[in-house]
Design brief:
The complex is a heterodimer of chains A (335) and B (516). Chain A is an all-alpha fold and 335 residues long. Chain A has a domain of 231 residues. Helix content of chain A is 76%, strand content 0%. The longest helix of chain A has 30 residues. Chain B is of the alpha/beta class and 516 residues long. Chain B folds into two domains: 149 residues, Rossmann fold (3-Layer(aba) Sandwich); 245 residues, 3-Layer(aba) Sandwich (Rossmann fold), CATH 3.40.50.300. The longest helix of chain B has 16 residues. Chain B is globular and about 65 Å long.
């Protein structure tokens, strides 16, 4: 319990430090900090549509945050959510467009989501297996796979999957579309509910199950876990497979809940922001929901303050939040 | 009054060292007002159990650890608040640490001048460094090769070289922290000759140790620390029993007998055949054949680095086996996974409990689950109630303190950590062989007794026990048979009556040093 209190306190300190640094930057940029902060809040929490947009932007970050947090437990750094997401979104869109249009929603969505998860899991498992059995560092492998997958997806699209002049696949069948969550016409869809439920499941998985225990033991002391006879190799690969499946859900969110097709460049950057989301939440699956909402708020608020300060300032602010979080965490572990 | 007596009186007035200090580390007082006074020209043994504060007190004297309060005199009063290693060295204090501080890839001469290299036209003057080291060694009666690479020397050679380097600069006080832990009996003799010469030349030597026979052999005076306080100081003759009582604060645990001799027809429990293990530099294990019968304790002696680690890890399944076989109760486990070995009944008390035994940052309960997951698993989740019950039972069995399943393993003392590993591993159902690697190293006397009892019980219960120890006392206390490893091979073996011979230790020591 004290640990989670400290996590929350660390996050708040990080936020305050980021706000102070942000204010300085706003002044340097010639703006008024008070006005910027007020606009940032009113353009995100001021009305239901804006709130819906925050939720919409937070949704994929929950998934990619979890995709980073799970392998982190097992001692691996998943920088490959980008590629996992892209590969999953492409196959998901193909399946969701190919199923007969009369397919019941449950089956259509189920098939599309399962395809996305399986594709992401395959990419993740490949990265994990190359690390565990071939000794190739997962960060290097993931960076290369991200580039390879982006290229292959574009090639496949141009060759056969994109329709018309656009770099966009065929629109998915209506039954596979995730319904909107309302919020006054915002882009938020039911995938956010799925994200929250997924975070709950991952939290339970890590805290209560033997699989979660094996991951945690492996990540904390690989040698001790191996000496105790735990299946550490399998655990590390499976953590990356699950991470890929979670990143795949982010891809499914974009395809089924937003674009209703695969588009080139879809979800770009979400995998990397997921790293920041997971680190700010210190790997806690439930805290990731809050962390993702904060980053969603910053992304949405960035549009609101665009007239007051350079748009890049909000990107800088995100980085400052992360930096502040890294510093407060460092202080915490030193004690 | 004779001249000699008046000189003795003068040195008694101004001791080489007088210290009293308090130092809090974390939540506990590592040193709680412990004091020590060492006369010039004497060898002073500082004894106490692990965690008694011996090392911390000496680190305060040497300026490595700051005292919260206290006083320090090194001939003259020293300001403890501004004390430093450089200051201690300037006052003629030197300290040699248990595991040595030499950089293994550098030569002895390079090590000797590290950080204060003699320069000549902007280059390191290696010739001068070598000359000075040889001269310093000669002053303390040592000969050494200044161009030898530290990592290629034996532990004993490295330690003597380090003492030679330090002793030359430690005219007032030389502190030796557990210096004999890694030495053969012959090397211990050589070390003690050197210590005696240094004291006779007028220097003071503090010997931090927990080996009471060494105290009796070499020390002029003894100070006992317990729980951060000085509980006794004796001069000259004092019985080791009396010291032991002061260390533990009561009657020391009795020395129990070896486990019962296994029956001659007892089946072989654990066996290795023609075992070869490749190490970073050539063959670490070079063709070892060894069979341990059910109920038998076989001790493996040898200087550290002669293949013990690789042999143990190969049996445990943690390092690849190049050639040969490992069998447990007749079952070939050479290529089996760690899990399969454990399921077959192998219990492993690893040499490095922080690396292979425990997760320091996890709770005691989670550390129990680490080795007993199959017993607390229920429908894919961990049955916390069953785990807590199992943990509570194991903690009680070996008196692990604090007996709190939610405590962090890293917060326990070394002895309690080791007891936790021992309890967890040996209590597993169906243990048929025990691989115990330095099971009592760095552990206090009470814990040593508990752990040895548990190993005895395992053997008496029919397990084949393979016991690795650097400490011959441990092997003599437990083993029915002792084999000696030298350069990855078994070079000698003693059992039965030969173990009881007066010259048993000498013979083992010769083998350990590589003599035929």
């Amino acid at each position: 319990m004290t640990r989670s209190v400290e996590t929350v306190r660390g996050a708040i300190v990080a936020l305050l430090v980021a706000m102070a640094a942000g204010s300085v930057l706003v002044i340097v940029a010639g703006g008024s900090p008070l006005e910027v902060w007020r606009t940032l809040l009113t353009s995100t929490l001021g009305d239901r549509a804006s709130l819906g947009q925050v939720i919409f932007r937070a949704t994929p970050l929950v998934f990619t945050g979890l995709a980073v947090a799970v392998p982190l437990r097992a001692g691996l750094f998943n920088i490959g959510a980008e590629g996992q997401l892209t590969a999953a979104a492409l196959t998901c869109a193909v399946v969701a467009a190919l199923v007969p249009s009369s397919t019941p929603a449950v089956l259509a969505i189920g098939a599309a989501v399962a395809t996305a998860m399986a594709t992401g899991a395959a990419v993740g498992a490949t990265t994990g297996a190359l690390r565990v059995y071939r000794g190739a560092h997962e960060v290097i492998v993931a960076i290369l796979l991200n580039a390879i997958i982006a290229g292959v997806a574009l090639w496949l699209g141009n060759r056969s999957l994109f329709v018309g002049e656009a770099t966009r696949t065929a629109t998915i069948v209506p039954g596979a579309v995730l319904p909107s969550l309302g919020f006054a016409g915002s882009s938020a869809s039911w995938s956010f509910v799925g994200a929250v439920i997924t975070a709950g499941i991952i939290f339970w998985l890590l805290a209560r199950t033997t699989a979660g225990f094996v991951w945690t033991a492996t990540g904390r002391n690989l040698d001790a876990a191996r000496a105790a006879g735990l299946p550490v190799d399998r655990a590390r690969v499976s953590s990356m497979a699950l991470a890929g499946a979670l990143a795949g859900l982010a891809g499914a969110h974009f395809v089924l809940g937003h674009k209703h097709a695969y588009e080139n460049g879809l979800g770009r950057g979400v995998g990397f922001v997921g790293i920041a989301v997971a680190l700010l939440a210190q790997g806690n699956a439930l805290a990731i929901v809050g962390s993702a909402l904060l980053f969603g708020l910053l992304a949405q608020g960035g549009l609101g303050v665009a007239g007051l300060v350079p748009k890049e300032l909000v990107d800088v602010l995100q980085a400052v939040v992360l930096l502040a979080a890294a510093i407060t965490m460092r202080v915490r572990t030193r004690r | 009054m004779t001249v000699a007596a008046s000189e003795a009186a003068a040195t008694a007035v101004v001791p080489a060292l007088r210290v009293r200090a308090t130092r809090q580390i974390g939540d506990c007082l590592a040193v709680a007002g412990a004091s020590l006074e060492v006369a010039a020209g004497t060898v002073h043994a500082l004894v106490g159990e692990n965690g008694a504060g011996k090392s911390t007190l000496m680190r305060i004297v040497y300026g490595l650890t700051r005292a919260d309060s206290g006083l320090l005199e090194l001939g003259a009063p020293v300001d403890l608040a501004h004390h430093s290693v450089a200051g201690a060295q300037a006052l003629g204090v030197g300290m040699v640490h248990q595991h040595g501080m030499l950089v293994p890839t550098l030569t002895l001469a390079e090590n000797a001048v590290l950080g204060r290299e003699p320069m000549h036209h902007g280059l390191v003057d290696r010739a001068r460094a070598a000359r000075e080291l040889v001269a310093a060694a000669r002053r303390v009666g040592q000969t050494l090769d200044p161009d030898a690479v530290a990592g290629e020397l034996t532990v004993g050679e490295r330690q003597r070289a380090e003492i030679a380097m330090v002793a030359g600069r430690a005219g007032r006080l030389l502190i030796l922290d557990e210096p004999t832990a890694l030495l053969t009996p012959d090397e211990v003799d050589a070390l003690f000759d050197l210590v005696r010469r240094l004291a006779d030349a007028g220097g003071a030597v503090v010997l931090v140790t927990h080996k009471l026979d060494e105290v009796a052999r070499i020390a002029d005076e003894v100070t006992v620390l317990r729980a951060g306080r000085t509980v006794a100081t004796w001069s000259y003759e004092v019985s080791t029993d009396e010291i032991a009582r002061a260390m533990v604060g009561g009657e020391p645990p009795p020395t129990p007998a070896r486990p019962p001799q296994p029956a001659a027809e007892a089946p072989v429990g654990l066996a290795v055949q023609g075992l070869v293990v490749r190490g970073p530099r050539g063959l670490a294990v070079d063709g070892i054949a060894l069979a341990v019968r059910a109920g038998e304790v076989v001790g493996v002696a040898g200087i550290e680095g002669n293949g013990q680690r690789e042999l143990a890890l190969a049996i445990a399944g943690l390092t690849p086996i190049t050639r040969g076989t490992v069998t447990l109760a007749g079952r070939d486990l050479t290529r089996a996974s760690v899990a399969a070995r454990r399921d077959a009944g192998l219990a492993h008390l690893p040499e490095d409990r922080h690396r292979h035994g425990l997760i320091d940052g996890a709770t005691l309960a989670d550390n129990v689950a680490l080795g007993r997951l199959a017993e607390v698993r229920r429908h894919g989740t961990i049955d916390r109630a069953a785990l807590d019950a199992l943990t509570a039972r194991l903690l009680a069995e070996l008196d692990v303190r604090p007996p709190d399943p939610a405590a962090l393993a890293g917060a326990l003392s070394g002895g309690n950590q080791q007891k936790l590993v021992v309890a967890r591993e040996l209590d597993r159902p169906g243990v048929r062989a025990v691989l115990a690697v330095h099971p009592t190293r760095g552990v206090d006397l009470a814990a040593v007794a508990r752990i040895r009892d548990r190993l005895r019980a395992a053997a008496a219960g029919g397990a084949a026990v393979l016991l690795f120890a650097a400490d011959l006392d441990e092997l003599f206390a437990l083993a029915h048979r002792i084999v000696v490893l030298y350069r990855g091979a078994i070079v000698g073996q003693l059992d039965g009556a030969a173990l009881a011979d007066a010259d048993a230790r000498t013979r083992l020591g010769r083998w350990m040093a590589g003599a035929a």
